[in-house]
Amino acid sequence: MHKKKNLLSKRFRSFYPVVIDVETAGFNPVTDAILEIAVITLSMNDHGWLKIEKKIHFHIKPFQGSLIKKEALSFNKIDPFNPLRGAVSEKQALKEIFSIIYQGIKKYGCSKGIIVAHNANFDYNFLMAACKRVKPKKNPFHPFVTFDTAALSGLAVGQTVLSKACRAIGLSFDNNQAHSALYDTLQTANLFCEIVNRWKKLGGWPVKKKNKLYF
Predict the structure, then answer these.
(1) How far is it, in rounded angstroms, from Cα 106 to Cα 114?
(2) Is the pLDDT of residue 94 over 90?
């Protein structure tokens, strides 16, 4: 366990990577509702390869006074008022998600969580707006730094659209499942792990300087 803690905690400057995707009822994080959120945590094996560890997914009840844009629902095909969704409040979802993240931070000896997402600014802004509404005792995430897989895949394979980046790097992508928070989070997690692991295969990590390894 100690070996695993050192590997993951040293890989991203002690940050604990957490892959996130939200499906929303619009583009404004302050006024528009979050309808789904999915989170995938990552781990690193004894040889330094990044992999998926845990998955958690919630359908979310629109917060009181939130706006629901028809254009957004036409895009993501979500019916926020369907009683069969089993939706929970933002407060309940964030409580459970943050609990899992703090467990991972402790388990792997990391200092703070860091959001990994495709076009990360979008998901980050919606999550931070939800935190302002819910007011959790603690927020596990770095206050402004994120890992954006759109930028990383643009560097790695010359593609920024999630489906195209996945296919370019050798991963499958089902367009019929796209825009589901859980599916998009899974594909983003696979993409991020593949990019990080490919960089390791190429000799880019650990960093070598003057016959010394820098973690």
Answers:
(1) 14
(2) yes
